[in-house]
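Reopening this ticket.

The earlier resolution said the output was attached, but the attachment link was broken on my side. Pasting everything inline this time so it's all in one place.
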Amino acid sequence: MFDLGFSEILFIAIIALLFIGPDKLPETLKTIARTIGKIKRSFEDVKESVNNELRVSELREEVLSYKRELEKAKEDLSAFKNVAAKEINEIKESVNIKKEFEPKDINDDLEELERAEKEFDKDLNKKIDLANEATKHLTQMEFKHLKKEAN
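Inline output:
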């Protein structure tokens, strides 16, 4: 970790023995070891928290990507509906058909798609809120844990 050789460690041990004394040296070494262990655990906890946050962020991006794809599909379907309605109107006018046929089926499908999109948006927002709450909870737990270790 510190890239110390045997001679450097021996020199440090002799200096510590002279300044601390043989009576308090074992207790001092234990305290130093515990402190180093706490610091390592704290760094590992912070690293794990950052990794969890990155995973939540990646999931959020993926969900938003799906939402954009769904919105594009909705726009495409709406454009198709408009083109189909124009074509149907042109055919009706050219054949002089009365209002026996309406593009009602397409309208029903579009309305159903819009309802599905609204449900998807609600579900998406719930999942994003849950992810945010989970992140907040994990962060709070982590800070409590670090605070306990610091004490």
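Reporter confirms the inline version is readable. The chain has one domain: 39-150. The mean pLDDT is 82.
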